[in-house]
Structures are given as C-alpha cells and as structure tokens.
# Entry
Amino acid sequence: MNSFEKVSGESVAAAYALAKERYAAMGVDTDAAIERALALPVSLHCWQGDDVQGFEVQESTSGGGIMATGNFPGRARNGDELRQDLDTALKLLPGAHRLNLHAFYAETDGKRVDRDALEPAHFSRWMDWSKSQSVALDFNPTFFAHPKADDGFTLSNADDAVRSFWVQHGIACRKIAMAMAQNQNGPCVINHWIPDGAKDMPADRWSPRQRLVDALDCMLADNDAIDPALCVDAVESKLFGIGSEAYVVGSAEFYQAYALQKGILYCLDMGHFHPTETIHDKLSSLMQFHKRVLMHVSRPIRWDSDHVVILNDDLEAVFQELVRGCALDRVFVALDFFDASINRIGAYVTGTRAVRKALLSALLEPVAWLQDLERTGCGAEKLALMEDLKVMPFGAVWDMLCEKAGVPAGAGWIADMQKYAVDVQAKRG
Ligand code: RNT
Ligand code: ZN
# Structure
C-alpha cells in the first residue's frame, strides 16, 4: 500500500547536493534561489475555505455571478473555523504569506451590519489573528452577493441611491484597509472588483462606464484618513461572467487606463481574458507604464472557472517573465481560486505550493545565458537549453526549500491534510 510518508531530511539533503552541483555548472546558485523564492509574499485568499460564502447575517443573494461548485464536507462556517483552517494550511506552506480578506467576512456578533456601515472594529478578530501569526492582511470590498447587486450593476448602477450605497461601501472598506495597514505596520492592498455587466447585447455601453469613472473617482477622493503608501488601491478587470456574457463595464482597457491615470494598481486575474489568452506576455507591456501590478493567480478551464492552481505552463511563464524582467519587487501576488468539491486544505496547499514552485523554477533559470544566446543569434542553442531546463533536478531543490522552511517536503503534507479532515473537518455540521 502506498502512503504519504514524510521524506527524510537525509534523503532531501543527498538529492539536493547533486542538484546543486548541476545548477552550479550552469552558473545558477540554488541556495540564493531558495532564499529569494521563500521571501516573496503570496496572499492567501480566505474565500477558498468557505466557498466564497462570507459570514453575513443578512440573506445572501446570488448577485455577482461567482460561485463555487461542489459539496465536500468540512466547509468553515465562521471566523474561528476559517482561522483554524488557515493556520493548518500555513503550517504546510513554505515561505512568506499574507491573508486576503473580503468585506463580507466581517464578524458582527450576530448583528446585521450593512456593507456601507462596516468599520475596522468588525475585523478586530482578523487583525488580532494577523498580529499573532505575523501574517499581514490584504482586503477587498464585496460588491456582490447582496440585494443591491441583484440587477447586475453596483458602482455603475443607473440608480443614484444604489450607486451611492456602493460608493459608501468602498469608502468604508478603504478605512478598514487603512486600519489593517496600521495594525501591521505596512501596506494593505485593497482590490476593487465589481461584477457589473449585461447578459445580452447592451444598447448603451457608454453610460455605465461613464458612471463607473465618476463613482470610482468619488470613492477614491475620500482621502482624509487615507495614506496611499499604506492603503494600496487596485482595480480588477474582467472579460465576462455568468450573467454578464455580453458586456462587462470594468473591462481590461477600462481599468488599465483608469489605474494609470489615477496612479493606482491594475489587477490582472489569469482567468479574466479570452479562453486561450494568457497574461505573461502582457507584463512587459503593462509594466513599462504601471510601476506595480496586482496579480490574481487562478486557473481557468475553458472559462473563468477558478480551478485550483497547478504548476502548468501558464503559471511558469508568468514567473519566468517576472524574474527575467527583474520585476518581482513590483508585483503583488494574490491567489484567487475556489473548489468546493475537494478537501479545502488540500486545495489551499496544492495551489499555493504550485505558485511557489513556479517562482523557484523561474529563479533557477540561467537567465543571462539564455538572453546572451538570443542576442548572439544562437536560436537553436537557446531553444535546446530551454528544453533541457525542463528536466533538470528541480524537485530536489524544491524539497530543500520545504526543508529549510520547516514544512514537509514532497507529498508528505497530504497525511497532515487527511488527519485534519478526520480530527477537525469531519466533526463540522
Ligand atoms: C471575480 C474576481 C474576484 C473574485 C474575488 C472573490 O471574477 O476574480 O477577484 O474572485 O474577489
Ligand atoms: Zn480575481
């Protein structure tokens, strides 16, 4: 019978010694690559733990078109359970992490508090957790799953009262992000994503976009208590959604231009482009003009399906671009996937480890050599070297990275996931 036994430290060290030599022969310092790969913060999204449901007292509605499919037992039902799950996942994850919260994960002690009235106090438990775990927080207003989002329009709604409700929500959230930043003595990235769009051919594409500009301007103008170095605003574009197949107000062009004009971050979600369109080629264009970007790491299958991220070509290409362009310091990496059909700790760990694997793999490239071959017309040599890099002993370096971070190497973490499923998740209603 196979079992998910832990790999011994000796066998990790022995394999690493050989791998280190192979990489050194190409001029790559594996120790330095491990150190750099561990240092980049990856922002863990709280919403994988509860299938994007949130803790609100009010009846949640469908508005917004994002939905996790599946019914695997063990979903976190409140803040304590979600934090317990995150602690468990973090123990199995190598490297630096942040936690990305959504506004509807406020804890209001059974009181109904509408989105425009949210305050930092409703996140005090999250902020206490953040301090105790030394995990900084990022934040998102929740412009979906609310009666005022049911007609598919929030910040671009034609109704002044509805639009201003959402502007107030954004303003309230920026104050919360500011409080989080102060609590952690460092920036909190606040990402604004709205679902606004139309199911079928709009007769007027212009007015909602004009209204969105005005609403965002209004939201971002409320700056009395805001330090832009601490409350780092981002805007996330999308191509289509469930119920917004024909038109999305906040498209890529819209937010690329808006973010640039306002000096805020543009957020690229890997699932928010055409089905075969990937984001790695966009980075060296956008980043000529945008000083920094936010990335939502996700995995679309045929559509924006938010599957658990795996180490595939798309993911590797993104980190290769960032490393080759010396742009790692200019990107905020956040996760955005949700699968309710498998163990949720397993989803967190598989997806988050895949991201750091891609990062490490990119850091193990002999970039200067590849670029030199290209510059000097040695195209066949460059292509052949790129192919050979794929079968270098990467796994041995990855295992050492895990070992150095004090988390199980290889597939050893799966046994911990299984134990937690029995000891904790199975007992949830
Ligand atoms: C939706 C966007 C957005 C959400 C989260 C929950 O298409 O990708 O980022 O997934 O805010
Ligand atoms: Zn996203």
The radius of gyration is 22 Å. The CA atoms of residues 34 and 401 lie 6 Å apart.
